[in-house]
Amino acid sequence: MSGHSKWSTIKRQKAAGDAKKGQAFTRATRDIMLAARQGGGNAEANFRLRMAIEKARAVGMPKDNIQRAVDRATGSGDGSTLEEILYEGYGPGGVSIMVEAATDNRNRTAGEIRSVFTKHGAKLGESGSVQWMFEQKGVLDVDTHGKKVDEIELRAIDAGAEDVEANEGANTVTIYTAPGQIERVKQELERQGERVTSAEVSMRPNQTVRVEGPAADKVLRLVDALEELDDVQRVHANFDIPDEILAKVS
């Protein structure tokens, strides 16, 4: 399993704990609002909204908060001012980075992100400068406790998965699908008794860059600093970092 994939799994597993900071609630609220604004407030007919609501529940968001987020996006509230923006740039060691933001003030957000890049020896790029290195994929994590990993992998492939990676030590299997197939694969796995712990459409790098030593520490500090920004929803990067360094963020 590549260092990037292991890092992505670690970050997803940490999401529930991050709810204590309140930042996870903010991100979950914005995910719900953006999904509802794009596809409507009916979760049965809007898969992106269903995924956003599931993630919100996973970090402990109350039902009333979830409904308020939907109402803000579909009513006359301030949800209409929220804007999705993608920033691209280069980090230490030649790592390519994409930052997904949701903001009501693009000037503020751009300034904050640029400041973090500069502080950590990184550089913002032009639109499209690194996006071509990533591919949108459906990403599901399946709990393997008490299960045979190879059987889960076979079920995932039969259900339509494009790739499967076992996360040794994390007791999960990460499954990649075409974006439009994630719901079907998830439903089929759950029908067969598998426990899907997370499901989202994310960005997967087509190739990774091996980063070690001081550069690896710098990359992780840069990513952590970006994720601490209030307007940042998620960060994608194409690094491959040794396990002993990744263990610091687990």
Q: Could you walk me through the main structural features you see in this protein, from its secondary elements to its overall organization?
A:
This protein has 250 residues and is an alpha+beta fold. The chain folds into 3 domains: 17-81, Integrase, N-terminal zinc-binding domain (Arc Repressor Mutant, subunit A); 83-132 and 207-249, Alpha-Beta Plaits (2-Layer Sandwich), CATH 3.30.70.980; 134-203, Alpha-Beta Plaits. Helix content is 45%, strand content 24%. It has 9 helices and 10 strands. The strands form 3 sheets. Strands 3-1-2-9 form a 4-stranded antiparallel beta sheet. Strand 1 and strand 2 form a beta hairpin. The longest helix is centred in the first third of the chain and has 17 residues, at 23-39. The two termini are 16 Å apart.
CATH architecture of the largest domain: 2-Layer Sandwich
- For the secondary structure, the number of strands is 10
Low-confidence stretches: none
Total number of helices = 9
Query: What structural class should be given to the helix and strand makeup?
Result: alpha+beta
The end-to-end span amounts to: 16 Å
Q: How many separate domains make up the residues?
A: 3
Overall radius of gyration: 18 Å
Largest sheet: 4 strands, antiparallel
Written as H for each helix and E for each strand, in order along the chain, the element string is HHHHEEHEEHEEHEEHEEH
CATH topology group of the largest domain? Alpha-Beta Plaits
